[in-house]
Amino acid sequence: MAADTEKLLQFLLRTGDNTLVLSHRVSEWCGHSPILEEDIALANTALDLIGQAQMWLGYAAQVQGDGKSADDLAFLRDAWDFRNVLLCELPNGDFGRTLLRQFLFDAYQSVLMGRLIKSSDETVAGIAAKASKEVAYHVERSADTVVGLGDGTAESHKRMQVALDYLWPYVGEMFESDAVDTAMAEAGIAPDPASLRADFDALVGRVLAEATLTRPDSPFTHKGGRTGRMHTEHLGHMLANMQWLQRAYPGCEW
Amino acid sequence: MKNEWPLWEIFIRGQHGMSHRHVGSLHAPDAEMAIKNARDVYTRRNEGVSIWVVEARHIAATAPGDKGPLFEPSESKVYRHPTFFDIPEEVGHM
Amino acid sequence: MYAQMIKTASNGVKSRDEMSPEERAFQDKIDNDIKIEPRDWMPDDYRKTLIRQIGQHAHSEVVGQLPEGNWITRAPTLERKMILLAKVQDEAGHGLYLYSAAETLGVTRDDMVEMLHAGRMKYSSIFNYPTLNWADIGAVGWLVDGAAIVNQVALQRTSYGPYSRAMIRICKEESFHARQGYHAIMKMAFGTPEQKRQAQDAVNRLWFPAIMMFGPNDSDSTHSEQSMAWKIKVKSNDELRQQFVDQTVPQIEYLGLDLPDPGIKWNQERGHYDFSDPDWSEFFNVIKGNGPCNVDRMNARVKAWEDGQWVRDGLMEHARKKAARKVAAE
Ligand SMILES: [Fe+2]
Ligand SMILES: [Fe+2]
Ligand SMILES: [Fe+2]
Question: Based on CB atoms within 10 Å of each CB, which residue in A206, B39, C26, C266 is the most buried?
């Protein structure tokens, strides 16, 4: 594989694995949410994310060029080959943490998709155009919920602040750059993640202020997901579930 | 603590320019969330392009006893219905 | 069915002479297929019975999310995961529509949920059975939703307007459920020997629980004349069960699977399939709370409800604060 093809593949896996892994987490809520209306809304979010994963990983498989499919990438890679940020694989925690994580990811996605629709790669631009409509709704809904719970009762406020303190050290990884990102930026395929941070901070700052939540000021960031260097222990357990049938009964049609 | 979210009635206008139609109800803390919930609950199959929400307690309705005086007069106005009129076939579709 | 063993609140069907003028006018409407609407006069027992029946139906949809939800994170392909998630999400929607229909009778959703959790309201026996392999997901959509559809199609004609409208909306969504289920189990039945084994196992385990969904035999089913007269039950348990068996047996045969009941045989004279009675003592045990999953199902529902309390309260409190700020600003 040519060096730039390899880099495009890495970019697509990163983008696709984020949505795949997060969709899995969100789908875990189905049947267990605080109220039916939220259960239905979360399922919609998960469905959108799986759809996006299918598109990104479908393109990744095509770029990889060895006849594999999006399903092969989702169900037959081991944890070290996943390229999602750690934020997406963290366990759900309570509903507040899930929604706050969703908001942080939605905020990142909304900025990213806004740039990707102008990608020099037509397929990337096309996927981003479709995804950006979904992301626009996701970020509106998750922002509302974060504000509602942050500025709700004393208990909901406290829980949201705890969730924010827990999640914040995982935010920075979304804006890390490496050689893959530099190559993507130079080719006009995708923006340098660092360049998304200002817009993200503005959006998140506005919502957290309205939610009366305090952003932790430690600049420390956990990383290792998007490079595959070191995932959390949680990803392996997720894959043990997700991939079990495909692994136990290889080569079947489902 | 009794703290149930209020009940909202949901009206949706579909793709084809018809009026908003009552599609059902749901619970939400306020109007904004009711609209979002309606989007998630009642437009999962592309059913709508516009949503109205009204808190159920604000809906005024005819009393069941009014059924006679309010609606019967229109029952006798059969001329309001197109099938009342025999139009000769030669004039074409109308 | 999703509403099984509903105890009709009534002391037997009254003859016309025994009815008050209001009751007579009410019964006339029903006999003429005029829908009863929320603000219309209705006998107390009609209201009570409907709350029980629609409430139980709603609870069944919501508890019914759990056995299928059990496989969402293990679905074998991205497409299957989407289909299953959308299907289970629909069931949450069905619960929501039905609770709304019951709410028009003057009970709140929270009241009904609390009664369920306190064991004072029930849900369908079928959801107390486990889903043990992937073919169960196909079998549930095909057999369980299939059985529900037989009942729900009949209920579209029920006398209570909001219930009937909810049924119409639900039936539109249900045909997707049955079809996706059959499609999934087809892949298994026509797949590798191991897949076929899972399909057979699923059909064997779920067949009798599925036909139990229609409730006890007519001869043992109490209180149904009044519900029939009120048109909140439209066909008898045995009629619906027979209809389900007749439509399903050829579908099992098409899959090339063994019939799950050696008693299934075409009866030329009746023009219907004969089949064995399920073990009704098992059914009554499940209804009493002794099914394989009753405790797990209820614990899961109660946990979701209790863990969600702070969320519901928090969002409500925020809405109040926002409204108050708006008033203050005006
Ligand atoms: Fe359903
Ligand atoms: Fe169902
Ligand atoms: Fe269903």
Answer: C26
Q: What is the mean pLDDT of residues B81-89?
A: 60
Residues paired with B27 in a beta bridge: B7
Subunit contact C312:A24, Cβ cutoff 8 A:
no
Contact call for B27 and C109, based on CB within 8 A:
yes
The span from the CA of A139 to the CA of A141, in Å, is 5
Chains in contact with C, where contact means 3 or more Cβ–Cβ distances below 8 Å, are A, B
B1/C313 Cβ within 8 A: yes
Q: What is the pLDDT of residues C11-62, one digit of tens each?
A: 778 888 899 999 999 999 999 999 999 999 999 999 999 999 999 999 999 9
Number of domains chain B is built from: 1
pLDDT at B84 over 60: no
Whether residue A125 contacts residue A108, with contact meaning beta carbons closer than 8 Å, is answered with: no
Best probe of the C interface among A21, A24, A27, by most C CBs < 10 A, is A27
Cα gap A66→A73, rounded to integer Å = 11
Tell how strand B7-13 and strand B50-55 pair up.
antiparallel
Q: How far apart are the first and last CA of chain A?
A: 31
At A171-203, the pLDDT tens digits run 999 999 999 999 999 999 999 999 999 999 999
Please name the residues between 115 and 134 in chain C that touch chain A, using a CB distance below 8 Å.
134
From chain B residues 6-65, the ones with a CB under 8 A of any chain C CB are: 7, 23-27, 29-30, 33, 41, 44-45, 61, 63-64
From the CA of C175, the nearest ligand is: 3
* Centre of ligand 1 from the C-alpha of residue C47, in Å: 23
In a domain? residue B2: no
Domain-located, residue B74? yes
Domain-embedded: residue B13: yes
CATH of the domain at B44: 3.10.20.520
- C-facing residues of A in 53-72 (CB < 8 A) are 53-54, 70-71
- Contact of A88 with A235, CB cutoff 8 Å: no
**Rg, chain A, Cα only:** 18
Contact B40 A140 (CB under 8 A): no
Beta bridge partners of C244: none
**Assessment of whether the complete model's pTM goes beyond 0.90:** yes
Domains and CATH numbers, chain A: 3-248 (1.20.1260.10)
At B14-56, the pLDDT tens digits run 877 789 999 999 999 999 999 999 999 999 887 778 999 999 9
ipTM above threshold 0.95 = yes
